[in-house]
Design brief:
The protein is an alpha+beta fold. Helix content is 30%, strand content 31%. It folds into four domains: 44 residues; 114 residues, conserved putative lor/sdh protein from methanococcus maripaludis s2 fold (Beta Barrel), CATH 2.40.420; 112 residues, Beta Barrel (Elongation Factor Tu (Ef-tu), domain 3), CATH 2.40.30.170; 174 residues, no CATH class.
């Protein structure tokens, strides 16, 4: 029994030793078999990332979520510009008008208040006259008128006497000279009263002895441009509707109070008509050569208006060009200014029986000016969001159905809004390029590349695959 157990132990050891010996001699083959099996399993579960992915695939829902827009690439001419800040300002001599008192007096009535719309000739103030000079002028006019009447009566009698020989002809000549002097004095007095604000009807009352004790102050006429010939058939109106017929002022500010005594020439109120304004640009001295060139050549300036609402206004159809450059530098900001004419738009609305004006552009409103400095011809211009960068590389995405191909491009110039690409053959004109979301598309491309699934390979149900059509 004991001998049997010994034999079984020896046999077991022999079998184990034989298996170990067999494993030792077949270790290379076993290693190759295990190595061949392991990558297959790993590849099936975790595909290797794609080293140089250039194509990504987006579903229609993803394109909608990105609000993706694709347009055909077209060569064009682009102006490289510099950005200059600016603001809208009043145009001196055009936008604002001051209304002054014609004589010494007291304000007894105000007819137009801030915000009211008035036309040239509308009544603004009523003043009670305290002017000794104006009272003396009226007295002298009345005296001269009465004296003229007496001289005319005397001349009639003298003419009859001279015809009979009772009076010499020299007496008649002397009376004619006195009449001419009185006529000149009357004309001077009337003109003086007209310049003081009296109407012709009031002056006629003065000649009858009815002196004027109050005077009306009216809105002045619009200032005509004396450098341009007047066109009687042209009726330009700064309004875009018919609520106010013809040009009008807006009372901007009252400078006096009711009952206040004012002196001759004192400012009573400020009227504004913002139809003609200036865009004032603020530039540094080193940019002066660019601005001078743009002004000389009449290059158009692109203007971005801050706080503008173009959807509720008519299209702004005007070309902006530099009118003149300032020849002095602001000591505080160390900038010099240049000026661009701006034709404003307005509309009116009625409330409580009065019409009020609303202007599209207002003095003080900020603007950003794009001044052209260089012309780039035969280039591709895309929005700034259409290009993504990776170090020195720049890429755009070409749409091909659901697929987007990433293309390397050469950037010539870029600013806040646009990127200019060289038309060097990297992008064929006519290809549809994504106009936005390039950074998002690039992230999707990297994510799909990391998954190891090629977006440009289509797999059929039978297991066959091919590249996109």
């Amino acid at each position: 029994m004991k001998t049997r157990r010994v034999l079984l132990g020896v046999a077991g050891l022999t079998v184990v030793a034989g298996l170990a010996t067999a494993a030792w001699f077949s270790r290379d083959q076993l290693s190759r078999w295990l190595t061949a099996r392991a990558p297959a399993a790993t590849t099936a579960e975790h595909p290797e990332p794609i080293a140089d992915a250039k194509v990504l695939k987006l579903s229609p829902q993803a394109r909608k979520n990105l609000v993706l827009v694709a347009k055909a690439a077209k060569p064009q001419t682009y102006w490289r510009t510099i950005q200059v800040p600016g603001a809208i300002v009043d145009r001196p001599g055009r936008s604002d008008r001051g209304v002054t008192a014609p004589a010494v007096g007291a304000v007894v009535q105000v007819h137009a208040f801030p915000g009211d719309t008035v036309k040239p000739g509308d009544r603004l103030f009523t003043l009670r006259l305290f002017s000794e000079y104006l009272q003396n002028t009226q007295s002298e006019l009345f005296k001269a008128t009465r004296e003229t009447e007496l001289l005319q009566e005397q001349r009639v009698l003298t003419a009859k006497a001279a015809k009979s020989g009772a009076v010499a002809e020299t007496k008649l000549i002397e009376l004619d000279n006195q009449l001419r002097r009185q006529s000149a004095a009357i004309q001077a007095y009337r003109q003086d009263l007209l310049t003081r604000g009296l109407k012709a009807e009031q002056i006629d009352e003065v000649t009858e002895g009815n002196f004027v004790s109050t005077i009306e102050v009216f809105a002045p006429p619009l200032v005509a441009d004396i450098r341009k010939p007047a066109d009687p058939q042209q009726t330009e109106s700064p309004l875009v509707d018919d609520r106010v017929a013809g040009p009008a002022y807006e009372v901007q500010e009252l400078k006096v109070d009711l009952g206040q005594q004012v002196q001759a020439g004192q400012l009573l109120s400020m009227l504004s008509n913002h139809h003609s304004l200036f865009i004032e640009g603020h530039s540094f001295k080193q940019e002066a050569p660019f601005l001078e060139t743009a002004a000389q050549n009449g290059w158009p300036i692109q203007v971005e208006f801050a706080e503008d609402d173009p959807a509720h206004w008519p299209t702004l159809e005007q070309s902006f060009q530099i009118r003149h450059l300032a020849n002095s530098i602001d000591p505080a900001s160390r900038t010099f200014d240049f000026f661009i004419p701006l034709t404003n738009q307005s509309r009116g609305y009625e409330k409580e029986g009065q019409t009020f004006l609303v202007w599209r552009f207002r003095p003080g409103q900020r603007v950003r000016l794009h001044v052209p400095i260089e012309e780039l011809k035969d280039v591709l211009v895309l929005p700034s969001a259409a290009v993504v960068r990776e170090g020195p590389e720049a890429f755009v995405f070409r749409q091909n159905g659901d697929l987007f191909n990433r293309l390397a491009v050469h950037v010539l110039h870029e600013d806040r809004l646009s990127i200019v690409l060289a038309n060097d053959g990297s992008v064929t004109p006519g290809l549809y390029l994504a106009q936005n979301a390039a950074a998002s598309l690039n992230r999707v491309l990297k994510a799909q590349a990391a998954s190891g699934v090629r977006a440009d390979v289509h797999v059929h149900a039978d297991g066959t695959s091919h590249a996109p059509h």
